[in-house]
Every structure is written in C-alpha cells, then in structure tokens.
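tmp note - TatD family hydrolase
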Amino acid sequence: MRIFDPHIHMTSRTTDDYEAMYAAGVRAVVEPSFWLGQPRTSVDSFTDYFDALLGWEPYRAAQFGIQHRCTVALNPKEANDPRCTGVLDVLPRYLAKDRVVAVGEIGYDSMTPEEDEALARQLQLAVEHDLPVLVHTPHRDKAVGTRRTLDVVRESGIPPERVLVDHLNELTVAMVADSGCWMGFSIYPDTKMSEDRMVRILQEHGTERKLVNSAADWGRSDPLKTRKTANAMLAAGFDDDTVDQVMWRNPVAFYGQSGRLDLEDIKADDTALFEGNSIKRGGE
Ligand SMILES: [Zn+2]
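out:
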C-alpha cells in the first residue's frame, strides 16, 4: 500500500515518526505552513520557517524514504497579529519555489476582518501564481465558518477544483461537495474525526475529491492515522484500488495541479510490514 499524507507538520515530529510512517506505507507528504504555538514576533521568523520547510525538512524526510513538499501562507491565527501581516509581501518570492505545491493553510480562525483580508489576498496570490490552495476550516462554529469560507472562495473567482477545504466532518461534507471543491478530513486520536466515522463518510458520500490526512503536529496527534483509516476502509469492504485512490491518487491529482509534483514513481505493491495498528519490524 502506498500512502500520501496531504497534511502533516513534520517539523514537530521525530525521526521515530518518519520510520514508523515509512513502515506503514507513507511515501510522500505535504507539510503546510502553520501556527507554531509560540507567537512569532516578526516576518523574519516566517522566512526562517519557510526556508526550513524548503530545505531542512525535505532533507530529513528523504533520509527515511519519504518525499516532502510544502505549502506556504500566513496562517489564519497570525493574520490577526500586525507584527506578522508583512509576510504577505514576501510570499510571492516563496510561491515561485519548486517545492511549494499550494498556497496554505489559509482560512478562518475567529472570522475577524483581518482574517477576511488575509484570506482574500492570499486567494488572489494563488490565482496570480497559478497554484491550488489549502483552506483550513475553523474548529469552533465549523458549519458557519465553512459556509463563509465557500462564499469567499466563490467570490475570489478561483476555480473550485483548485481548492481543498480541510478539517471537514459529517456536518460540512455535503456543502463542500456541492461547491466543487476538494474535501479534506483530518483524523485525530480522540477528538473531531475518527477512522470509523471517516469510513462512513466515504460510504455515504463516495471517494471522489476526498483526501484523508493525519494533520499531526505538536499537539496530541498520530502520524499513522492515514494507514489506520486505510485499514478501516479495507475492513469495511472497500477494495485495494479504492483505498489507493483515496490515499494516493486523489492527493497526487490535487497537488499535481501545481505542475510541480513530479514524484518518483511509487508502486502500490511496494508494501510495508504493518499489521493492524502496530508495526511489525523485519526479522521479529
Ligand atoms: Zn495543519
């Protein structure tokens, strides 16, 4: 099985995670730039971070057999901090880089006027740079936030097939499906979405334009949730080809719209030793 995790923050993860992900079948990841927990106090902190996403992290990933790409943006939370908004002026320089496969993650956190401004401006940057966008939906007031996000996306004029709306659940999947945007689902250890709920969404709404990610970061999260969801799909009767569509071909198709995703060819039968929810290492 081959897996592409389309949303994971590897900067916050260990080399043990990279090893376990490889053993579980993960061969490619996209790391969106995001909020680091500790507030940044200057634009320079962003550029150092973007440079790490473009240089150091792909190097680290490659040591474990995993191909790494990123997305860059001013995240929704820091869009509210005047010390950070200057990053919008340096983004064009980063959006020109080969390893950047989308603008993201952008969107709403608290739905303030400052967030409106940053979202609209970055959707425009995506159009100008001919890149897809990764849009985060807020964890509070999710249905309201998602609806408003879709309105802003529509007004921006960006084609919906170039937009991935992430962190969806049972309440928001239908409105995003109707919009023509791609649908992302983040599977977490104990809150929000689980692998069983994900399987039910795929049964009810189909597998077209759907992406599954772990969104693993510095909080309690699990970088193997992609594989665990794939296992849950198989247990529920989905066949290997459908699992491959959701876990590999869909994210490749979405980020491939950047024109920059020339991954080394990975075959679906390049399988890893992984049974149930624990990793079996060779020789044991
Ligand atoms: Zn994220």
